[in-house]
Design a protein that fits this description.
The chain has about 270 residues and is of the alpha/beta class. The protein has nine helices and twelve strands. The structure holds NADPH dihydro-nicotinamide-adenine-dinucleotide phosphate and the ligand O=C(O)C1=N[C@H](C(=O)O)C[C@H](O)C1. Homotetramer.
Length: about 270
């Protein structure tokens, strides 16, 4: 039985991850955490999620270290917010808990701090901007398109729900990095355009973030040349697409001793 703890337990992702873990025969939820100011701390997680009593009370992230020492989980899953994720990862890594990290929006410094703690403590981690299987195939296709259409004008557009806090999405940034490292010409990123910006430069990769309604997550990359345009789009219509990848990542990481992995490793796409 894989003992799992979830941080961000009442969030859009955390709550769905918990519901799906409870349906797995080989997994057991052993603790769940929320931000210290959450009014539901101390209440039963199952009742909070409308699942009936689970006899697991919602813990404050302030008690993460103490509770991890008590419940000794195999894996911690974090879908929170960048600054909280870094702290949660540092505590989990010190306690030798394996990691599945889906949080996005890290600054360069935050990412370095998180990776340093994972490496120093020699724990294994899956870190991915997008756990949906389709998005990872979309990334693979982008590798090919960037090689073959690297001279075309390339623009990335992402659309997410009005509650999303970071922009551009982690997925859009990852797509931009994949394109940059696979096209033959030098590239730089342009985040939106405003004013007398002049004609488009070949080196630009435009990145545009749209926030509206309840859109779960959509990513389009446009490759435009003279007389033609190729567009590739991934649309997530349910968070279950991400959650299914998280479940695969939990099973993948439980057998690893150390190292930093992503969803290409989990899905055999390397
Ligand atoms: N990699 C992937 O496949 C995906 C990644 N994401 C990313 O996951 C993250 C979460 O997204 P989403 O679930 O929509 O966001 P939510 O805001 O719905 O959930 C995040 C939860 O984490 C809580 N939280 C904040 N600080 C802490 C802390 N220190 N310890 C524990 N919990 C804490 C928040 O509480 P409060 O609201 O009180 O601050 C909130 O309940 C985002 O970065 C998003 O981009 C999302 C979908 C897929
Ligand atoms: O915040 C979200 O909702 C999502 N975030 C991830 C990202 O920033 O790429 C993945 C997904 O698109 C949903």
């Amino acid at each position: 039985m894989i003992k799992v703890v979830v941080t961000g337990a009442l969030g859009r992702m955390g709550s769905n991850i918990i519901k799906t873990i409870l349906q797995q025969e080989d997994m057991k939820l052993v603790a769940a955490f929320e931000a210290p100011n959450n009014p539901n701390i101390g209440k039963d997680v199952g009742e909070l999620l409308g699942l009936g009593k689970l006899n697991i009370k919602l813990e404050s992230a302030e008690n993460l270290d103490k509770v991890l020492k008590e419940v000794k989980p195999d894996v911690l899953v974090d879908f929170t917010i960048a600054h909280a994720c870094v702290e949660n990862v540092k505590i989990a890594a010190r306690n030798k808990v394996k990691l599945v990290i889906g949080t996005t929006g890290f600054t360069e410094e935050q990412r370095k701090e998180m990776l340093k703690s994972i490496e120093e403590n020699k724990v294994p981690a899956v870190i991915s901007e997008n756990f949906a299987i389709g998005v990872n195939i979309f990334f693979k296709i982008l590798e090919i398109l960037a090689k073959k259409l690297g001279d075309y004008d390339i623009e990335i557009i992402e659309i997410h729900h009005r509650y999303k806090k970071d922009a551009p999405s982690g997925t859009a940034l990852k797509a931009a990095e994949i394109i940059k490292s696979n096209r033959s010409r030098e590239s730089y990123f342009i985040y939106g355009r405003k004013g007398l910006v002049g004609e488009r430069k070949k080196e630009e990769i435009g990145i545009h973030a749209v926030r509206c309604g309840d859109v779960v997550g959509e990513h389009t990359v446009i490759f435009a040349g003279d007389g033609e345009r190729l567009e590739i789009t991934h649309k997530a219509s349910s968070r279950q697409a991400f959650v299914n990848g998280v479940i695969l990542a939990i099973r993948f990481i439980k057998d690893k001793e150390e190292g930093i992995y992503d969803t290409f490793d989990v899905l055999g796409l390397r």
